[in-house]
Specification:
Blueprint: H1 3-78, E1 92-94, E2 97-114, E3 144-148, E4 153-162, E5 165-174, E6 193-201, E7 204-210, E8 236-244, E9 247-252, E10 256-259, E11 267-269, E12 276-285, E13 288-302, E14 310-326, E15 330-340, E16 354-356, E17 362-364, E18 366-379, E19 382-394, H2 397-400, E20 405-420, E21 423-436, E22 441-454
Parallel strand pairs: 10-16
Antiparallel strand pairs: 1-2, 2-3, 2-4, 2-22, 4-5, 5-6, 6-7, 7-8, 8-9, 9-12, 10-11, 12-13, 13-14, 14-15, 15-18, 16-17, 18-19, 19-20, 20-21, 21-22
């Protein structure tokens, strides 16, 4: 047997021997592959199902959003367009400024009885209570009637935002203190007088305003121009003021009033080189409010020539005020002020700041003053006020003489009716008395009826 035939025979035998095993292996691989394919198909079907579910959920959400948008658009179409920004209802705009104006018209009907003789026609005492002018020593001439509308007042304010800062201003005038160039026989004229004129920048104020030594909110509700005149701090003047929250401080116009040695006409000096300095703190609570204020000032008087005078003194004062609620609508208003050298600030300069000594030096004059006023609201249309006010002066009569004012006090009661908003009609009766250091005195009885409309 040759080699080639032998090899062929061996291969044939091996093939015959291995064929069943090979076929069996191939069959196993095919089954495994088919199982794997089935598994992949199942996973693919699960993925398709998840994708379809996600798409269905997204479709539902998109449909809901579309419905919301449609509803919003329908509402917007049905609603009227938003109005354009308008100027404030109580003002009008010029550029960046909002301007407002207002005031009141007031007519007074006054009947007065002066125990010491009637003041001259045109005297300010005939228009409002000026305790330092109550006549003393004359003869009672019987009641005198005075009708006027000089308390009529108007004001203009402006507000704006400039460079990120709040800027405002106020101009206020009336006809009260300048009677006019004529008399009451024909046209009863009155001259316009400046009351307040200032500008504010954030917390700063520059210009003429009520003194920072005064608390305006506690002033009594009276028919008279001031009311508790002898007992209240009262002054308007040019100043620079800084306010932060409840605290305010200012430097204000200095002015010194002087009593000559042994008495005589008041001297109004303008020789101070330093401004008056005031500070005030106000506390506001549910029961009302209270404040305390202080003032320090330089008093100065200087003359030239024979017997020249060059003297200064230091004045100081403290004022406490409060408005206390009594029930829902009533209140009690109080003020107490005192110090040395502050006469021009209290009671319309009832006493002077200082008196000259024989050697030409200034000596301060002490003063103590205050008032109490109770306001009772009977109904939304009716209210009443009862007010007592007083001032006492600590004069050195060896310097001032016996004609200097020693004291003053007054008592007043009123009834005010408000038939329609902003319109008041009222009547007030008051009694006031002034006493000199000599013991001489004069008194004033007054009935005042008024009508006032604010706008």
């Amino acid at each position: 047997m040759t080699l080639k035939p032998a090899l062929l025979a061996g291969c044939a035998a091996l093939a015959l021997f291995s064929a069943p095993e090979l076929a069996n292996a191939q069959s196993q691989d095919t089954a495994a592959l088919e199982a794997r394919i089935a598994q992949l198909e199942a996973q693919l079907n699960e993925l398709k199902t998840a994708v379809q579910a996600s798409r269905a959920e997204q479709a539902v959400q998109q449909q809901a959003v579309a419905q919301d948008i449609q509803r919003i658009e329908q509402r917007a179409a049905a609603a009227p367009p938003a109005p354009a920004p308008a100027a404030p209802s109580d003002g009008f705009r010029i550029g960046n400024n909002t301007l407002r104006f207002g005031g009141f018209v007031k007519a007074d009907y006054i009947v007065s009885d002066y125990s010491g003789g009637d003041p001259a026609n045109g005297d300010a005492l005939r228009d409002f209570y000026l305790p330092g002018s109550i006549p003393v020593g004359g003869a009672d001439e019987g009641p005198a009637a005075d009708f006027n509308a000089r308390q009529t007042r108007f004001w203009l304010t402006t507000e704006s935002l400039i460079g990120g800062r709040k800027v405002g201003g106020r101009i206020e005038m009336d006809f009260q203190v300048l009677p006019g160039t004529g008399d009451q026989r024909t046209t009863s004229p009155s001259n316009l007088a400046l009351r307040r004129a200032f500008v504010t920048v954030d917390n700063w104020l520059f210009g003429q305003e009520w003194t920072n030594f005064q608390n305006l909110s506690v002033l009594p509700d009276t028919a008279d121009y001031i009311g508790a005149s002898e007992g209240t701090v009262f002054a308007r003047q040019v100043q620079v003021r800084y306010t932060r929250g409840p605290f305010s401080i200012s430097i204000e116009n200095p002015e010194t009033t002087v009593t000559p040695f042994a008495g005589g006409a008041r001297i109004i000096a303008d020789d101070s080189s330093l401004p008056d300095v005031t500070a005030r703190y106000t506390l506001t609570r549910p029961w009302g409010e209270a404040s305390v204020a202080g003032i320090v000032r330089q008093l100065a008087y200087e003359t030239t020539g024979l017997g020249a005078i060059d003297s200064t003194a230091t004045g100081w004062g403290v004022s406490a005020a409060a408005k206390i609620k009594v029930g829902e609508t009533n209140d009690l208003r109080l003020m107490l002020s005192g110090g040395e050298g502050i006469g021009r600030y209290i009671g319309l300069n009832f006493s002077n700041d200082a008196v000259l000594t024989a050697s030409g030096d200034l000596e301060t004059i002490g003063v103590l003053a205050g008032f109490a006023s109770y306001r009772h609201v009977w109904s939304p249309q009716w209210r009443s006020n009862l007010t007592y006010s007083a001032q006492s002066v600590d004069n050195d009569t060896a310097l001032t003489g016996l004609l200097a004012n020693r004291s003053a006090h007054s008592l007043r009661a009123n009834l005010i009716w408000t038939p329609v908003p902003a319109f008041d009609v009222g009547a007030e009766f008051m009694f006031g008395e002034r006493e000199l250091e000599s013991g001489a005195s004069g008194d004033l009885n007054r009935l005042q009826v008024f009508a006032k409309y604010g706008f």
